Amino acid sequence: MSSTKIIKVDPFIPEEQYLQEAAGILAKGGLVIMPTETVYGIGANMLHKEAINRLYEIKERPEDKPFSLHIEKKERVEDFALDIPISAYKLMDRFWPGPLTLILNSKDNNTIGIRMPDNEIALRIITLSGVPVVCPSANISGKPAPKNFAEAIGDLNGKVDFAIDAGSTALGVESTIVDLTVKPLMLLREGAIKKEDIEETVNKKIVLFVCTGNSCRSVMAKGLLEKKLKERNRSDVQVLSAGIMMLAGLGAAEDTRELLKEEGIDVSGHRSQKVTPDMIKKSDIILVMERLHEQRILELAPSVKNRLFLLKEFAKIDDNNLDIADPIGKPRGFYEKTFAIIKEAIEEIADII
Questions:
Q1: The CATH number fitting domain 5-194, selected from 3.90.870.10, 3.30.465.10, 3.30.300.70, 3.40.50.1360
Q2: pTM, whole model, 2 decimals?
Q3: 46-101: per-residue pLDDT in tens?
Q4: Hey, how many other C-beta atoms are within 10 angstroms of the C-beta on 194?
Q5: Helix (H) and strand (E) counts in the chain
Q6: Do 5-194 and 204-352 fold alike per CATH?
Q7: Fold of 204-352
Q8: What is the pLDDT of residue 101?
């Protein structure tokens, strides 16, 4: 039996040299015991056939039971999965990094389990390795998943190449597994995240309003829709607003604040934000003010085309121009006209969602 190199590290300030060593071993096809926030796992290079075969052997796991992939950033999911549903983006946004494994359609016409762990040691090793890393629990199949290093190394000392001792894991409970390749989704294992939290996240509709600077038009739309939803006791809809420009952290324009205040809506706490691909992909409906915004959204996330609309399409106005012009720098009267168009469109949107 070969020996396992065991390294003890501070879970909060691990020595970089050991993480680099672990990553190098993974990349070359070795097996590494590492902590995650749930339980300890055995990392292996997904592309290294001998490493995967060895992993099945030491875990005594049936070869028809695939290992889940662990990734270091959310964007990596699109490197391995396709036809990713909105529900997946909603769950990733709320629970990643964290104890949630998503089963998705893979690019090789199969399915794949993917998770982004909430543990800096695991994330750093995956990043440094430069290879896709699977990381099943560090135990013999059928035995309890290890919550601390002593439990992890117990049956595996001498069977893996490198092992990192970082004490006990933060949660000590395995990840929740959700299959999103079927409709409705299927909860395969309830772990650290409860079924009701999964259902609440997936079932909540998300409406995203986008304008240029996120200080006028999208703020008006968000405030008006939130008011309508509150009047109808709707708690199942989340409303977001963002802009396509770089400016962030600015408050709403003065005329916007005043017009909304007259409707009983307080946006004094609003701070502008730039629209992101993650924000777009998790939204059930994206409503923009101009065709320019529509083009930018499609550049960031082409797959959302069927749920992207110009807001003015919903206003009952006989006008071939579907852009709602930017009132920034214009007189109060221009703001009032803009506000009236948006308000009429929101009446229709509130009835649809």
A1: 3.90.870.10
A2: 0.92
A3: 999 999 999 999 999 999 899 999 999 999 999 999 999 999 999 999 999 999 99
A4: 12
A5: 12, 14
A6: no
A7: Rossmann fold (3.40.50)
A8: 98
